């Protein structure tokens, strides 16, 4: 059963170094409502460090615009290309830093868990996730984004909404001190 909440804003992020997706949900009582979804297009930035700066600036702007209470972020999956994983992890870290800088609690969700929460199938395609979100949130076909990274970000937020009021086994951080206390091995 989903715990009743007066109002809560959830920002969901699908991290990326080329296209980063985001979605913002407002929860009133137990009813989710789409506030925004979109992408941060990083293709024109050739330098990885400039991409990271742009991610920080845009995520900070989204946070300042929508004032989310919580951040749900898709955890990177393990791939074969170590360099790609390193870059994706940095992008995710920059998003987390932007949220932690504003004292926004963070919860990470594995891609499989997000897909399972939205479609009931951990191996669902991006298209299946997008279609399900369109139906559940009653999004007009004309308002669906071109890039499914946006619906992936929205899926992270919706997954978090579905987890509200349930015990979480995912990592959540309430601020820098909490992050450091839960990750002492990362601080050198």
Structure overview:
By secondary structure, this protein is of the alpha/beta class. It has one domain (5-186): Ribonuclease H-like superfamily/Ribonuclease H (Nucleotidyltransferase, domain 5, 2-Layer Sandwich), CATH 3.30.420. The chain has six helices and six strands, in the order E-E-E-H-E-H-E-H-H-H-E-H. The chain has a six-stranded mixed sheet with strand order 3-2-1-4-5-6. Strand 4, helix 2 (82-101) and strand 5 form a beta-alpha-beta unit. Helix 1 (48-66) runs parallel beside helix 2 (82-101) and helix 3 packs across helix 5 (148-163). The radius of gyration is 16 Å and the shape is globular. The mean pLDDT is 89.
What is the fourth-level CATH superfamily?
Ribonuclease H-like superfamily/Ribonuclease H
Question: What portion of the residues fall into strands of 2 or more residues?
Answer: 15-25%
Average pLDDT reading: 89
Domains counted in the coordinates: how many? 1
> Helical element count?
6
Q: How many beta-strand elements? A: 6
CATH topology: Nucleotidyltransferase, domain 5
Helix content: 40-55%
Tell me the span between the first and last alpha carbons: 42 Å
Reported for the largest beta sheet, the result is: 6 strands, mixed
How big is the Rg? 16 Å
User: Any idea what the shape is?
Assistant: globular
